[in-house]
Every structure is written in structure tokens, then in C-alpha cells.
């Protein structure tokens, strides 16, 4: 055992910065606070390496909340250069450009909500007109435009870039404000040419609209184009790291492709899942080491916390560190 370090109390001044608070959390010794501090340090170093491959993976649910703004800022500032997520991210990110989501409560009467045409996502309320109705209208406009341009077979990242371009046209037409568009993750992925890969593109409203459109139009999703892009990027990368929020297909896609280059060189997981049920969402980085998906020498940590709490705090501190 290395020389033992004493636990220090967290003492806050009247104007303590986020980065200072994170440092104090590291010195506090435990429990989840120390993990958040270690994670922020790993990510700060990782995103500072602009020559490396920097993966960002997350589930759709947080995009229905204000945490969307944190993810958007990560993409807007080019902190990460590959995004892997689920179809619901596209749904929530697009829908909230044109319509609002609302505050709710975990204990609302779901039967009453159903009859009122309101969907509950945790303690967030999503009226039908803010989700399926607006997405169907806008996706049909978008897909008709693509087919007219002769773009009939695309990977998910290419569809998402085309959606970003569509938003630019919406701004020009006065259908959406620049402010609303700049709150969009999709918009900044297109502007910064960051590929956003959605392996399960049909698992959501956007994907359903694509399927429905393809019933009477010559239009195809080609997921192999996504896989080719990921293969090219990972094989060429001299260094690769990842911030992985939650689990599921987006998490596995990140670690799967990195096993072919000797594993991720740094990794941070944020999850509320347990590992004893064998789930991917709950699996810790050490398990990925056994598969060669994370390099055994890589700095790695799991933050066991709700991402809507941990991520804003961590990102505030990271931004202070990388702009010094």
C-alpha cells in the first residue's frame, strides 16, 4: 500500500469554482464524490488530446431533460469527436427544437395522462403534439427533400448530418430560430462534422417515420456504412478514450470497436445500474478489460450516480480546466 493520505473536509468559500470544488471532493476521500473527481480528471486529460479519438455515448432519456444542454456543449466545443447513442436522442433533440417538454412528477396518474394525450418520461411530461405529431410532420418534409435530391441510401450518421442541414434550411425559412437550432446536438454534430452513430435507428419515432416513408419510397438505411466509419476511425486512431453514460447498445458499440485496436486508452462510466445481474449497463470497466475492450493500463473509473446530477458538475469543472 502506498503512503496513506488523510481525509480532508470539504470547505467552501463564497465563490468556490466548480474545478475547486471537484479538487476538494477528491481530497475528501469518499464515497461517490471521489469517483466524480477522478472521472473529471481523466476526461479533462482525454479531451485535451485533440489528436485522439474521443467517444461520447449516452442514452436518450437524459436528452428529455436540461442535461441535453451539457451534451450539446460537449459537441459544440468539439470535446468529443464521435457520438454513439439511441434513436430516442434524435426524437427528443428534434422535438424540443419545435415544441416544449414540461415539468411533471413521478407520482402523477398515468391513466389520466394517457387520456389527456400526455406521455410521462420519469418526471418529465411530453404531450403528443410535442413528440409524435411534430416529428411525423417534420420527418416527412425532411425525407421528401432527401429523395428529391437523390439521397436514397444512407448510414445513420449521414442521415443525422442531413438533418443538421435541414435545420439550417428551417432557420433560413423562419420555421425555427437560430437560438433553438443551436440548442440541438444534431445541429452541432453537422456543423462540426462529428459523426453521430445510432446503431438501433428504428427503435424510436424518427426511425419509425423512416420505415413508414420507405413503404412507398425508394429509401434505405444502410447500417454497414456506420460500421465502416467506426472501423476506419478506430483502426487509424493512435489513442482512443470514452465517456460512457448508461449502457445498452450505444455503450457496447463503443467498447466493441475499440477491442480491435487494443482497447480504450481511458474510460469513464456513469451509471446507476448494478453489476451483479450481468447486465452491460452495470458492468464495470474491469470486466471490459477481460475482453480487451479497455486497455489494462488505461485510467478508468465508474461514477455511480444519476448523470443529470453528476454530469453538469463534472463538465463545469472540466471546462474550467481545459480553458486555463
Structural class: alpha/beta
Report the average pLDDT across residues.
95
Number of beta strands = 11
How do the strands line up in the largest sheet?
7-2-1-9-10-11
Contiguous uncertain segments of 5+ residues: none
**Element-by-element helix/strand order:** HHEHEHEHEEHEHHHEHEHEHEHEH
Biggest pleated sheet: 6 strands, parallel
Distance between the termini: 34 Å
Instruction: Tell the overall outline.
Output: globular
Radius of gyration: 21 Å
Please characterize this protein's 3D structure.
The structure is a single chain. With 324 residues, the chain is an alpha/beta fold. The chain has helices at 18-27, 32-48, 68-76, 87-98, 110-115, 132-148, 156-172, 178-181, 185-191, 205-214, 223-236, 248-258, 285-291, 307-322, and strands at 53-57, 82-84, 102-103, 118-121, 124-127, 153-154, 196-197, 220-221, 240-245, 266-271, 300-304. The strands form three sheets. The chain has a six-stranded parallel sheet, with helices on both faces. It has a three-stranded antiparallel sheet with strand order 3-5-4. It has a two-stranded parallel ribbon with strand order 6-8. α13 (285-291) links the parallel β10 (266-271) and β11. α7 (156-172) packs across α9 (185-191). The longest helix has 17 residues, at 32-48. It is globular.
